[in-house]
């Protein structure tokens, strides 16, 4: 896995996550976020998608300093609350972080440029970064409102979707982000 200049983002709401006080589960989940692919990759003729990783109980145990039993228990808890899914073979497991795109919004694009290019494009880049950050903030804003409302019924979710479409910030989202937002709300 190329870890070059990559990073993960972590929202302060993580402090309120149901497993936050369970040290083993928290350590393992953060480790999975750090190890998961940030883009699709090919491994032994298998496409490992963004938000997935190839691992095993033994590897996770070695990498996190948790015992194999602690690792199994933590994985079981993460599976029970839908944080992850696991597809196991006799040689490895593919772990999928269920809401990886929510945790790691891919709208922030960074590029490496030469000094002269950076100087020539500074104003454009600053404007684009501000726009991308604003869009990420808008997306997160709607998700946070949804989470705070704790809507469970489909009719409540549909009503919420109709309400946010009236918000002027909603139009600032791309069509793809609107679909992603809608899908998140309907599935969670």
Notable characteristics:
5 strands; two-stranded antiparallel ribbon; 52% helix; 188 residues; mainly alpha
What is this structure's SSE topology?
Layout: H1 23-35, E1 41-43, E2 46-48, E3 52-55, H2 57-64, H3 68-80, E4 84-88, E5 93-97, H4 100-103, H5 115-120, H6 122-149, H7 154-165, H8 175-187
Antiparallel strand pairs: 1-2, 3-5, 4-5
Which word captures the global form? globular
Mean pLDDT, all residues: 79
Q: Name the poorly predicted regions.
A: 107-116, 122-133
Number of strands: 5
Strand order of the largest sheet: 3-5-4
- Evaluate the radius of gyration: 19 Å
Distance between the termini: 30 Å
The proportion of residues in beta strands is 5-15%
* Main beta sheet: 3 strands, antiparallel
H/E topology pattern: HEEEHHEEHHHHH
Short description:
It contains 8 helices and 5 strands, in the order H-E-E-E-H-H-E-E-H-H-H-H-H.
Explain the overall architecture.
With 188 residues, the protein is mainly alpha-helical. The protein is 52% helix and 11% strand. The chain has helices at 23-35, 57-64, 68-80, 100-103, 115-120, 122-149, 154-165, 175-187, and strands at 41-43, 46-48, 52-55, 84-88, 93-97. The strands form 2 sheets. It has a 3-stranded antiparallel β-sheet. Helix 6 packs parallel to helix 8. The longest helix is centred in the C-terminal third of the chain and has 28 residues, at 122-149. The protein is globular and about 50 Å long. The chain starts with 22 loop residues before the first helix and ends with a helix.
């Amino acid at each position: 896995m190329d870890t070059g200049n990559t990073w993960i983002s972590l929202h302060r709401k993580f402090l309120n996550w149901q497993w936050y006080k369970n040290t083993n589960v928290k350590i393992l989940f953060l480790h999975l976020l750090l190890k998961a692919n940030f883009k699709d990759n090919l491994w032994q003729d298998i496409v490992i998608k963004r938000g997935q990783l190839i691992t095993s109980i033994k590897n996770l145990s070695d990498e996190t300093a948790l015992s194999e039993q602690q690792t199994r228990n933590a994985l079981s808890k993460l599976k029970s609350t839908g944080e992850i899914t696991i597809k196991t073979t006799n040689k490895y497991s593919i772990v999928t972080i269920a809401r990886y795109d929510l945790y790691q919004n891919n709208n922030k694009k960074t590029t490496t440029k030469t000094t002269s290019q950076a100087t020539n494009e500074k104003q454009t880049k600053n404007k684009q970064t501000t726009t991308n950050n604003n869009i990420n903030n808008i997306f997160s804003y709607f998700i946070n409102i949804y989470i705070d409302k704790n809507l469970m019924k489909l009719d409540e979710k549909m009503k919420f979707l109709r309400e946010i479409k009236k918000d002027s910030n909603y139009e600032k989202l791309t069509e793809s982000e609107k679909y992603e937002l809608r899908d998140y709300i309907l599935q969670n």
